[in-house]
Structure formats: C-alpha cells, structure tokens
Design a protein that fits this description.
Length: 89
C-alpha cells in the first residue's frame, strides 16, 4: 500500500506542475498569482516524496530548489498583495 501511495504522490505532483506550466503558457494563469505558485508548491512536494523514496537524488534536489522558489514567490506575492488569480485581458 505504501508503494502505491508514493506513486500517487509522484503522479499527482507531476500533473500539478505540468498543469501550472500549461495554464501559464496558454495565458490562462498568471505566474504572479497564488494559484500558479501553489500548484508548483504542492506539485514539488508530491514529486519530492516520490524522488526521496526512489533515491533519485538529482530529481529530489531539483524539486527542493523548485519548492524554495515557489515559497519565495508566494511570500513576494503576499508582500506585494497582488495575488492575481488569473491573467487579465
């Protein structure tokens, strides 16, 4: 059961990261908004759990750095109080 749960975390994380990128690239979601950054944050948590379990250290390092960037971006959005949810226009 644990192995299945680890796989689910990895797949859900990957889907969140790719969905955020797709929505941003298609102009539907602003990278300056909470939704985009939270999708990346939770996505990297899922993929980090999967990478840690599989001892995939380079991927884990990438995900940890990506997660730190998301945290920093969320903090900057909070400080600026822009918090755009979706791209306008």
């Amino acid at each position: 059961m644990e192995k299945i749960l680890i796989e689910i975390f990895g797949w859900v994380g990957m889907i969140l990261i790719l969905a955020a990128y797709l929505l941003n690239s298609s102009g539907k979601l602003s990278s300056q908004g909470y939704v985009y950054q939270l999708m990346n944050f939770f996505g990297t948590i899922g993929t980090s759990i999967n990478a840690f379990y599989k001892h995939a250290w380079p991927i884990l390092a990438l995900q940890v750095i990506w997660n730190l960037i998301s945290i920093y971006s969320i903090w900057k959005i909070y400080q600026n109080k822009t918090g755009l949810l979706f791209k306008s226009g």
